[in-house]
Each structure stands twice: as C-alpha cells, then as structure tokens.
Amino acid sequence: MAVTSNAQWPDDLATSILLRLSVKSIIRFKCVSTTWRCFFDNPSFVSQHLYISKRNQRIVVRYTDEHEHDDDIVLRMFHDTTLATFDDWFPQFQTLRAVSVCIHDGLLFVCDINLRIRLWNPATRETRFLPQYYADARHRRYWNTIGFGSDPISNEYKVILIVRNDKPYKTPLLPQLRCAVYKMSTDSWRELKREELHLVEGKSLYNSENACVNGVYYWVASDDVLYWKHYVVAFDMRKEVFQLIQWPHIPDTQPNSTGELVIIPRVDRISLWISDSYADSHTSNHDFWMLDEHGQYWTKLLTIGPLLELYDLQTHQLIDTGLRHKLNGAQFRIYTYEESLVTIRRHR
C-alpha cells in the first residue's frame, strides 16, 4: 500500500521511517488520510512496529512505597535505565489493592481481588473490561491463578484463569478445580474439560506475572502432598494444553529453595531464579537456570548473591535503584515494557 505520492520517497523507505516512530506520533498521522489510517492499522505494520519497539524496552516497577502512608500499590514506567523520570500508571485504575499484573506485547492485564479483569494499552489509551467467567470465583475460598499472553501463529491474545477450591472440606459441593481460556477476538471464555486438567490436579500454581514466551505461559507449582517438590507448569496458548516440566536438579542441601520465573530479554527464553532458602534475599544466593527451546531441559548459567541491589546481566554490576519497598507490602515486581499498536477495541 502506497503511503506517499512523492517519487523521491520510495514506499519501502517511507515504511522503514514510519516503523520507528512513537505510537503517539503514529496516532496523530492516522488523521492525515484514510489511506494512512488503513496502512497503520494493517496487522503486518503493527507486527513489524512491535518487533522494532522491543529493541527499546523500558522498565516497569510495581511495589509499595515505604514513604507512603497507605498500602496502595505503585506501578511506574521508567523512561530509561537511569530511573530518573517515570509515568505513574495506577491512577488509570484508581485505587486497586491486591492485584495481579501481566505485561505482554505492550498490553497490561490487571486483575483485582474481586476478579475484575481489565486490558489496557498505555500507548494508545485503549481499554477493555473482560466479561465475568465464574461468579463464585470471587469468594475467598478459591485460589485463583492467571496468565496473559498470545499465540504467535495466529496473533490471538488470550487470558487463562485457573480457579481452585482451596478448602474443599468446607465446601464439598463446589467444583474443586475449574479452568477457562478467554479469546480477545471472540470476547468470550471457553471452559476446559476436566480431562484437560489432569496435569495440574493436586498442584498449587503460583502467579508468575509476565511469563509468556513464544506462545507458552509458565507458572511455578508445588505438589499438594509432597509440598517441597516443585515443578514448572506450562500452558500452550495455541493448542490450549498444559505441560509439566521437571524442576532443575539442585543439591539436597537446599530443601527450602524457592523459584521465580523471568523472561530473558531479546533471547525469548524463560529462566528460573532459584533462591537457596525462604530467607530474606539480602542473605540468599540465587541460581540462574535457562530452559531450552523445546521446554525440556534446564541449563545453569550462573550463581549470584546475596543481592542488595539490582543486578545488570549485561554489565555484571549491581545498581541501587533508589526505590524503597515496604517490607509488609505487596510483592516487588519488575517488568519490561515496549510501546505497541496492538488494538484491544471490540470490533463492531
């Protein structure tokens, strides 16, 4: 599709320039003409723009500021690695407590304690509230696990919600385990059958926000009976099936080890940070494992710690971020974010 009538500006050169513009500038240029609007809305352009945008990722930090008088969660997007300037994002969601946040392809997934789920694109300011899946899941008797990601083949964005009856002995008539997948294109939920859930039965899954890589979402899980036995549970966003991945082999001297899943930027691989104890990270050592591309084997890359500051994998230096998190506040989380043209508008 031609984007310029000037013979001195070939289409491929004009496209190359436009792909490197900010989302804010592209939204303004959509007003130039219907042709330009259609060009910018083309899925191919959106995909290429996202690919380039991922080379300039920014840091988003979620924490509870120790200088604040309440326990409201702070969600800030820092403009660069100096952490000198930032945008405060949570005013967009008013006051939300005890929320889960996922960031994928420039889209934010936010779920509060009442299972009100919202998608938001900070760059385009588009927002979408998801239809309710299971009304009883809002009750405290349930343990809710969530995930948000996409199928890279179809470019379909999906939410997975796992609802588990945490106290079946008190409410034996309620379902013990339910799971559903939301598709953004149809704006609807599909409930998985019981036989599709056998790999996650008898296991506690822990929300691992921002853990979708190449169309697969990952969680850390533990066995309900052998509680010290850990796994990694994976969910294929395209096939909509679960997979159970064995925990890396660690010495018997680390029986209380815990793990956090982290995406390795630009490599598009999932990694597992295993702490040697439940103790404070200031006194713990951390093993850094990487999962192979087939999702079967772990490779140990390095051991670091104790960590008093943020560790830069490229420079191998520790950085004091200046952020001070309340010890009794919500979990401290760090995400990567890139601007995106991906639309979450409902099609009429």
TrEMBL record:
<dbReference type="Pfam" id="PF07734">
    <property type="entry name" value="FBA_1"/>
</dbReference>
<dbReference type="Pfam" id="PF00646">
    <property type="entry name" value="F-box"/>
</dbReference>
<dbReference type="InterPro" id="IPR036047">
    <property type="entry name" value="F-box-like_dom_sf"/>
</dbReference>
<dbReference type="InterPro" id="IPR017451">
    <property type="entry name" value="F-box-assoc_interact_dom"/>
</dbReference>
<dbReference type="InterPro" id="IPR001810">
    <property type="entry name" value="F-box_dom"/>
</dbReference>
<feature type="domain" description="F-box">
    <location>
        <begin position="9"/>
        <end position="49"/>
    </location>
</feature>
<dbReference type="InterPro" id="IPR011043">
    <property type="entry name" value="Gal_Oxase/kelch_b-propeller"/>
</dbReference>
<dbReference type="InterPro" id="IPR006527">
    <property type="entry name" value="F-box-assoc_dom_typ1"/>
</dbReference>
<dbReference type="InterPro" id="IPR050796">
    <property type="entry name" value="SCF_F-box_component"/>
</dbReference>
<protein>
    <recommendedName>
        <fullName>F-box domain-containing protein</fullName>
    </recommendedName>
</protein>
